[in-house]
Design goal:
It is a single chain. With 89 residues, this protein is mainly α. The protein has 4 helices and no strands. Helix 1 (2-20) packs across helix 4 (73-88), helix 2 (28-43) crosses helix 3 and helix 2 runs antiparallel to helix 4 (73-88). The radius of gyration is 13 Å and the shape is globular.
Length: 89
């Protein structure tokens, strides 16, 4: 089981690298999903206190993250990987 988790973590890090090096602009809704999956995968459930000052942009980000709060960390990693793979092909 630990090997499987390591594989998922490796794939997640590779997807993060791909996302970090992307040059094409993505639609805002896709960016919000990517953000939400990443935050859920790396921080777990959103805490409203994490957003010190909520402007419109942060409100959208917080809302996107709250919509995926039911996902486990591994599920969020898998969805993040799938999303990055789909936008980089």
């Amino acid at each position: 089981m630990q090997k499987q988790e390591k594989d998922l973590d490796t794939l997640f890090l590779e997807a993060y690298e791909k996302a970090s090096n992307m040059t094409k602009a993505l639609p805002p809704d896709v960016m919000l999903k990517i953000y939400a999956y990443y935050k859920q995968a790396t921080h777990g459930v959103v805490q409203v206190q994490q957003f010190q000052k909520i402007d419109l942009r942060d409100g959208f980000k917080m809302n996107a993250w709250m919509q995926v709060k039911h996902l486990s960390i591994d599920e969020a990693k898998r969805l993040y990987i799938e999303m990055i793979d789909s936008v980089t092909k």
